[in-house]
Specification:
The complex is a heterotrimer of chains A (about 300), B (about 450) and C (about 280).
Chain A lengths: L5 H6 L1 H39 L16 H8 L3 H11 L2 H17 L5 H7 L2 H4 L2 H11 L5 H8 L13 H28 L4 H9 L4 H12 L1 H17 L2 H7 L11 H10 L7 H25 L8
Helix pairs in contact in A: 5-10, 5-13, 8-14, 10-13, 13-16, 15-16
Chain B lengths: L1 H26 L4 E8 L18 H12 L3 E8 L2 H14 L5 E5 L2 H4 L14 H6 L19 E2 L4 E2 L1 E5 H6 L12 H13 L3 E3 L10 H24 L9 H15 L13 H6 L3 E6 L4 H8 L3 E4 L15 E3 L2 E5 L6 H11 L2 H8 L13 H4 L6 H6 L6 E2 L7 H15 L5 H14 L1
Parallel strand pairs in B: 1-2, 1-3, 7-8, 10-12
Antiparallel strand pairs in B: 3-11, 4-11, 5-10, 6-8, 6-9
Chain C lengths: L5 H29 L3 H6 L12 H9 L2 H32 L5 H10 L5 H15 L5 H24 L4 H9 L4 H12 L1 H17 L2 H6 L8 H6 L9 H28 L8
Helix pairs in contact in C: 1-13, 3-13, 4-7, 4-10, 7-10, 8-9, 10-13
The chains are: A mainly alpha (about 300), B alpha/beta (about 450), C mainly alpha (about 280).
Amino acid sequence: MTHTTRASLRDSAIGRKRTRIKRLEIFLSLLPVVLILLVFRVYPIVTALAKSFTNWDGLYRSDWVGLRNYVTFVQEGTFWMILRNTLILLLNVPLQVFIGIVVALLLYERVAGWRIYRAVIYTPQIISAVIIGFLFKIFFGFEGPFNAVLKAVGLGTLAIEWFGNSYTALGVIVFSIVWFSIGWQAIVILGGMSSIPPSVFEAAVIDGANYWQRAFRIVIPMLVRVLEFSIIASGVWTLTQLFPFLFAMTKGGPGYETSTLDYMIYLKSYGLGFGRDYGTATAVAMILLLLVLALTVIEMRLANRADDWG
Amino acid sequence: MKRLFTFSLLLVFLLASVAITLSSCGGKKEAVKLTVWMNGADSIIGPTEQQKPQDQWYVSQAFRRFEKANPGVTLELVVQADQGAAHTNFKTAGLAGNAPDVANLWTGQPIFALKEVILSLDKLVPADDLKYIVGWESVRDGFKPDGTILGYPAAQNQICHMLYNKAIVKKAGMDWEANPPRTIEEFDSALAKIKAIGVTPIVVDEAAQGVPWFFCWVADYWWTQMTTNDGILEETYGRKKFAEDKGFLATLAYYRSMYVKGFFRKDLTTANDSFTQFLNGKGALWPAVTSFLADAEKSLGADCGVLLPPEFDPNAKLVNSTVGGPGQSFVVAKNTKYPQMAVKLISFLNSKAEVLAAQKINRYPIVRTDVTPEEMGWVPGSNIAKLHKYSTTYNYWVDNLLTSGPAEIFYTQTSLVAVGKMTPLQLAEAMDKKAAAQ
Amino acid sequence: MARRGIAKQVTLSLLLAILTVTFLYPLYFMLINSLKSRTEYFVNPFSLPRGALQFENYSTMISQFKILNLFKNSFFVSAGTVVLLLVVCVFASYVFAKYRFRGRTAIYLAVLTTMFIPSQVTIIPLYVLFSKMGLVNRYWSVILSYLALFLPEAILLMTANFRAIIDELLEAAEMDGCGYFQRVRHVVVPMGRAAIFLSIIFYFITAWNDLFTPMIFLQSMDKRTVMVALAALMGRYTGAPTLQFAGLLLSAVPALVVYIIFQRHIIRGLSVGAIK
């Protein structure tokens, strides 16, 4: 057996049986995933897509209205602001990836106290978004500690109402997302680093590369796939899972100044308990879906590394 | 062969007798099981109760009393974590055909929107209940006096008012117990006096709860004084326009002027610690509903007072009142198997005996006309007794009059008018646009 | 490492230390407030407790609020989700990572696309579906919802990680007569354990902390999860915040424990050589 080549294996009877077994393995391995996703994700979203062309009120009224929900929503004065908010919030992704890499490197290199840091960095992810939102709101409130410190060091003119304006509020939210996510980024990257054989590092040292060169020229390229994962995952999280934070921190306000598409879906379907606008809510969800798809395609094109996916 | 035959006969006999016994079991009185959804925190179940084991809650004990009086009935209590989501859940469950038999929801538009899955109680409500319980208009479809009854008003009433700090007011040279500001001019100058001594007159988190607090609890009264609840209904249904509602625009204009004059804290739309500030004496007034009285009295003691909203328009038909009323209801799902028992339960919870028992735990002005403050043990002249005076003369919640389109704009954008990011007219026009699109 | 400037090292350490303090602050906040009485909390949420320490909040949580029973429910949901997720994911990711077949890219991308759907939108059709299947108020409804939600991301993570497994190892195993399951057990799982442990951590904690899904699907009192029960303690008008903080702190413990147990293993893989 060990002396025959792959090609002859394939051609022989044993080879064909092998291929059949492999096909079976592929089929059975993928079947549960495909089934679960079809039933519990695809079916609901197809239903939602259908409903987005109606004036569904959550109950029995469901008349076809074509693209009216989409058009009305896009024409609402707030649509572009909401889109802008959604995109600004995405700025947190490069920030958290960068800081995450730095922290991961520091932990990898076993900086003094690394065990404590490693145990503690994931803590924000374990705490409910409500508490985090509440604390950030107080911390950056007009009469809160942050402004107090600014005044104390003489930067009183910067002590503004952080949550009172679109851009500054979004800035604080981006900051809070980065704070919240550093731990997650760091352990994902550490996980990726754990599959880099140390021999690679040793070789780099022998070659005379200093620390930062080692870090950025060698480690990062090997982490590309992991980074791709973390960029997509954090991007998608920002676009679709941010709701609890926004709810806790700003309720999308003032007005709609910090609302995102994700938040609007909530508002339209659950808002104050009697939202009748499910047709529009699902339309907004479709718009969000398109946005996410577009961004992911762009991201994948940009990160077009040579591998056999293309 | 004979043996086999005998054996088969025996078997048939056995099976038959078993079948008969089983079927006669079914003939006995069928056990009735009712599922009841209760609001977790804002209603019958109060904060102090959740510290006790579930079987010691007032509502659990009430259920036990009911079960005892009605053998064969079991009640299953489900606590809803989020009252807003409860409405959507009820709707979805109704669509799937398994909504709870009894649910504790809000009153007004929120349940009108669910009427396709709510059982009409027109034929089921006993006449006595209609007579002695207050607040039926809040649960009749369209608020019409003859509208379909969609539920019972729940056995408690919130009354809107402003909590105020007597010490601060005294320092500013006033005594609101003897001489409360009753006209808008008096109110305005009173607030100016407080500002003059360096204290923020009104501390409020106008947007933190997703609802413009001051506007909903106080300014809404001014609005409805001039426009009346019926007028507002016309506008939300699109038959009239908010933009042409002089009362609405005037109220919003005054609201904005209050901010400009510094009567509100500067970070009105982003603050979230106003209650704390009020309890620490950093603000003179805090708009509230009855639920907060207990905590305020505990912190401020004798310095805690209640002030009812001044009259914006002394010539209005509606005077000497405030916003309030039953904000909570009990509804019965259309898919219930036991409509009479469900109504019997609700009627029981609203009965005089039960209302008295519940009030021992959670103080609210109550929805029955045959209960006196003395029976409740309230000292005349106390804050709670003062609020109780309005328990039959309140003006029903203005924000529950709005349908979901205008409501969305109202809830999210009204506070922007105070800080000048939006003009009153822009707000009104936005609400009109939504009303027209419904 | 000694070659890096001391200043740089000190600054970085300092920054990490500050970061650590901020990470721990919310826990500290909940702790001090869980020991206050309700009114004391409203008066000043940031001070240390001044009156008697209210340990009753904790004893109430355990004996009367029955938080341990709620832990049981949350645990069934979270652990059940993680176990099933791993089983389904490991095999699927292995196939995506190491097998070649027509349509692989298409199916992979299709799986990923489902990740982009926000859950608020699917919840209502899912409720109706589960209702027809009779699964409302059963753990399965939440577990299946979570599976559907987490699968694409977990597959993305594991596939990325499994692709780094050296092909020769797998071939060697196959040559040695290892069947499919044995290859997974002896090569894929050990080599890919970083991703597996990461998944355990992420998804257990996400499921444990989630409020939205169990609030809708598990409503009966004896099946409620911890977070849902705690959310009921704070209404718009009334609330028991100090009690809620005690509960939140207690419920953070299992999540922290899971994290601490598994995070050591992620870095442990560093020194283990791949080619044995």
